[in-house]
Amino acid sequence: MRGFLSRYLPKRFKRLYRAFRGIDVNGVMLDRVETMRLRYQRSNPVVPTLNPKKILFNSQFGWPYGIVEYTLAAAIRERGNEVMMVACGGLPKYCELMTAAQTRPSCDVCHANVARNFDAFGLPHIAAKNYLTDLDRAEAEAISLGAAPSELRGLKDDGVPVGEMAFRNLFQYIKGYPFDLTGEIGSVFRECLTSAILVTRAAGRILDDFQPDIVCTTNGKFLQWGPFVYQAVKRNIQFVTWEDYQITPSAVTFASNELAHEMRHNEGWGKELEKPLTPEEEARVRAHFRSWSRGEVTTWAGYAQTATDETKAVRDRLNVRAGKPIIAIFPNLSWDASSVGFDTAFSSMYEWLYAVVRYAADRPDLEFVIRAHPAEARLPDAYKPPVPVCQAIRRYFLEIPSNVHLVEADEAINSYALAGIASVSMVYTSTLGIELPLRGKRPWVAAGAYYSGKGFTRDIESAEHMFQLLDANEFDNALTSEEVERAERMAYLIRFRGVFEFPLMPKAGEFSAKSWAELGPNGNSVLDTLCERLLNHDQFTDLAGAR
Fold first, then answer.
1. Residue 247 gets which letter from DSSP?
2. Is-contact 418 339, C-beta < 8 A?
3. Which of 112, 135, 207, 242 could form an S-S bond across to 254 if both were Cys, CB 3.0 to 4.6 Å?
């Protein structure tokens, strides 16, 4: 019976049947989207606006959050503007869909899948692959194979830092820090570099061909996204970036002429300092971070309920000497995008950690505690870094000073309790850097996190600067009430005003519109506001309140 139905039912009903069997749910959704769109547009054709704008969406391959771009592009098109979607189409050896634990799909299958998404939403599209020549491919490979290992990271093509972007992709590929750029990792680095060069060249030609008013892309930092940002900046083209923000199933954040996932809000921060929070807003942000600290928002954050937060128990577990100041060090999960590409005072998070351990050898009067991020132990095996932080430190040093205590990711020590007894708490870019100010403590920040430079952190400028601060025993890190208020305003801006639930997407991969009219003007207030701000280069704050 199953074979009969599968063979003879019409296409539409086949998909419904397969959905019932748990197969090809995305195909059923796309059929529904296409039917809904065509039915609506027969009687409501798109009418060009008086001064239409051209928006290029860099949407290289299909992924669950691609619904954000398809919906937004379709909504902008319904408002009479011209849109163009860019698919990858195929890269020779490396693309961002592959990792050390996952092979890449066939380029033909991948392109067909994303094209099917574009077609369902009625979006015209091109393939970056078609903007490349055989000579480009040969040159890109020659550049990547011909460079010495020490040169790879600094390489540029058409002024775009392709070597740095390729290096960042290694973090995603191995789910960890690329310590050794020889052997397999070195080969992958060169393949990443080849792809970065090709995407850079294709991006420049696509922008010159389509001549958009605005370029929209997710991320903007890795090799299939970043070149479009760099090429837009070179041509004085406005750009918008966005990122999923997994505090709710449909949360996203957008930014105009900035990288959304860096959450800097450079243009708006100064004004926000002048806006005190209401008692309700203050209570909301504090309740949120209490839940965050318990792991109730995301399992990556927080600490196991068995983790002790009793001061004496923490000291006993750490075996720190009584009466000695504690310097607590809180590194990030090494491959997370929130820590990659933020380096300022140090070339990497590990150079920072190594500098701390070397310094500790000359300061036996201090106790140093390096607490690995708990996500190292909590992630599925395919996402766990191959070299955990504590292992990396032990591997780098023949001998660890006795006043350096390494706390593994799964050790039952509450990091908030550790920070509470520490004279200094140092972070790289972790969320702890905004949480501690809410608790009245000033963190020392060793990289360019979004909360650095906002008036409630001590920002480390270099290794020497960190040593000078430690030499001077700069251990008075209590914040004033005014500084705590600044931190509250920043935290509220990031978590509530800068993040919103994307309309018509209850969770990634789902599209919930009941009628195509919801994508048109006055169909959804959040979508109305989002389109208006994208087209006019406004800041993307307070969209959560646009409903």
1. T
2. no
3. 242
**pTM to 2 decimals?**
0.91
pLDDT at 153 over 80: yes
Q: Which residue in the block uniquely carries the two structure tokens 């995305």?
A: 26
Which one, of 507, 525, 508, 524, lies nearest residue 516 by Cα? 524
For the beta carbon of residue 542, count every other beta carbon within 10 angstroms: 13
Q: What count of other Cβ atoms lies within 10 Å of the Cβ of residue 493?
A: 24
By C-alpha distance, which of 484, 458, 482 is closest to 472?
458
**Pairwise CA distance, residues 86 & 292, whole Å:** 37
pLDDT reading at 304 higher than 80? no
Distance from C-alpha of 26 to C-alpha of 263, rounded to nearest angstrom: 31
- CA 159, chain centre distance (Å): 24
DSSP secondary structure string, 363-392? Answer: -TTSEEEEE--THHHHS-GGGS-SS-HHHH
Query: H or E stretch including 427?
Result: strand 424-427
In the predicted structure, residue 17 carries a pLDDT above the cut 50: no
Q: pLDDT band for position 545 (50/70/90)?
A: low
What residues does 413 pair with on adjacent strands?
308
Cα distance between residue 337 and residue 261, in whole Å: 8
Each residue of 497-514: pLDDT tens digit? 999 999 999 999 999 999
The answer to whether residues 289 and 438 touch, using CB atoms and an 8 Å cutoff, is: yes
The 10s digit of each residue's pLDDT in 385-412 is 999 999 999 999 999 999 999 999 988 8
Query: Could you tell me if 458 and 327 are in contact, meaning their C-beta atoms sit under 8 angstroms apart?
Result: no
How many residues are recorded in the chain? 547
Task: Quick: pLDDT tens for 348-366.
Answer: 999 999 999 999 999 999 9
Measured CA distances, 1 to 5, 19, 276, 469 (Å)? 6, 16, 66, 76
- Alpha-carbon distance of 83 to 345, in angstroms, equals 41
The single residue listed with the structure tokens 């905004």 is: 434
Residue 176 corresponds to which tokens in the numbers above?
Answer: 């960890």
In the beta sheet, which residues pair with residue 242?
218, 254
Cα 460 to Cα 451: distance, rounded to the nearest angstrom: 13
3-state class (DSSP) for residue 254: strand
Among 85-94, 301-310, 364-373, the least confident range: 301-310
